Structure prediction request, 660 residues.
Amino acid sequence: LKAIYFKDKKIEIINTPKAVIKQNEVLVKIILAGICNTDIELFNGYYGFEGIAGHEFVGIVEKSPENPGLIGKMVVGDINCGCGECSLCEKGDPRHCKNRSVIGIINHQGAFAEYLNVPLENIHIVDESISPFEAVFVEPLAAALEPAKQIEINAEYKIAVLGDGKLGLLSALSLKYYNPGLLLIGKHEEKLAIAEKQGVKTFLTDSKRESRSLKDELGEFDIIIEATGRPDGINYALDLIKPEGTIIVKTTSHELSSIDLAKLVVDEITLTGSRCGDFNLALRFLKEKRLDVLPMIENIFHFEDFHEAFKLARTPGKLKVIVSFDKNPG
Amino acid sequence: LKAIYFKDKKIEIINTPKAVIKQNEVLVKIILAGICNTDIELFNGYYGFEGIAGHEFVGIVEKSPENPGLIGKMVVGDINCGCGECSLCEKGDPRHCKNRSVIGIINHQGAFAEYLNVPLENIHIVDESISPFEAVFVEPLAAALEPAKQIEINAEYKIAVLGDGKLGLLSALSLKYYNPGLLLIGKHEEKLAIAEKQGVKTFLTDSKRESRSLKDELGEFDIIIEATGRPDGINYALDLIKPEGTIIVKTTSHELSSIDLAKLVVDEITLTGSRCGDFNLALRFLKEKRLDVLPMIENIFHFEDFHEAFKLARTPGKLKVIVSFDKNPG
Prediction:
């Protein structure tokens, strides 16, 4: 059995023994896995990572001793595996458990492999109306929808998504369900076009344009989703937000951001960090065809061509690169 | 008539003509005015300020053509004067009106003067059970209570106030009404003692102590009021906050703060800026004796000794310095 191994900024295709599942685990045969910016960071050595990465996946259940009804089903899986014992796990929020493992990130093998063990409670069955090429987007789509779980997003607000990268696009495509008038602000005409085709309003800007001039043209926003991926993106957001507005921060830069907190205080602005989301909500969005994720696929590679896939994924401006562990994924 | 004039980092006592009130204004004869850190910043030339500062005041109404019933009453006044026409003013929130003037700060004479014009709608009558030495704290007390208007604060949460300066002390003394177990963390034994005497739990730390070691000893908090006044105070707060917790930011430093937004995102933390508050709520706290503000008075000076008063107020670590414009303020 094969898996992709990250070590010292190198990628190796290794042989792994057939996985032995533990109690309350399910063995998933991976069909597709998506490459996320976090994987690129892990490759680059952030968090001192070494091992099998990958946390966006769809697969077929091969073993499930505690729930045999899952066998043969197409599934996706939450990536946070809580300890099951702390107060956060007890209230059903393993996403923030201090002792959690995270599939493909912290102390749990990832999905860039032919087989993956997943805790039974993390498993979500994918409806038959959803293709694996759509289902592989469930993890990032859930993250894109997380703001709608954190704050009220309705049609009354004036909302902007900053950044037309993968997460910005998914945010705009999905959150427009709650706020049809939202504006996606980005620097890439061809990416904005993907959102436009699905009815999202867009605004093309460029690196030289100052936020003040953007504000003069666009006005201020009640809610901004900051998904630029740049450490100074937050300052753009602070310049464009209304007093008492909320900025949802999606960018996880490894540089510190320099922020004018006086502006935050005087205008009583709220910044809320936002990470993983609700898989059930993302699956409902896909089932009800509230957005089309397929135009966000940059390319699909067989896992034996992982080097090539990863090189493409690391190229700035590329959309979602998907790796197939199955000869006939469709 | 006399007033205190700030210009080019100098203070002058000037003569002013007797104020002419405009429509819907009230003429207030100032009894007492408090010196705030903002006044020190204005003196230092931030915001390019020149003029008569002062925004914490209590006085007696001398003229009130539109509401003669106010004449002779002891009053305090909201400092934000909205344009009355924009959408924020229409929904009753002149605090964030873009065209607002702010008493003693922006385009409106301040309270370091014998007489002050105040918009009628900004006036609050002070109950007879409240002394002027208490009433002069209404403005900062309202600001200290603002977090309780912005988020739910109840006894269930584990809450810390960071910083035992004037605002930190007022925050701890007032917010303990909602959360009796809250902890005030500061570096000054004598200031913590003021809070302790009124039943606030306190913790003495020092500049050398790292936030990590504080966390080991105190655990993490659901809510932190960041009132250190230092640009790096926010990072202490970020180290001590629970996942999905809320930091209320009170510090308005003129330096930028370097913040690890990745921590904000991964732990889904919320930062909410917090400024001015609700005078009615502050007056209720004083009337019902929910806290005693008098131990927070550092000293009281007659306005002709303003130089001396201001020198003391600028000395680091000093509590509230009050200026009297009345020979018999009590």
Notes: DSSP finds eleven helices and 18 strands in chain A. Chain A has a mean pLDDT of 95. Chain A touches chain B through 35 residues (CB under 8 Å).
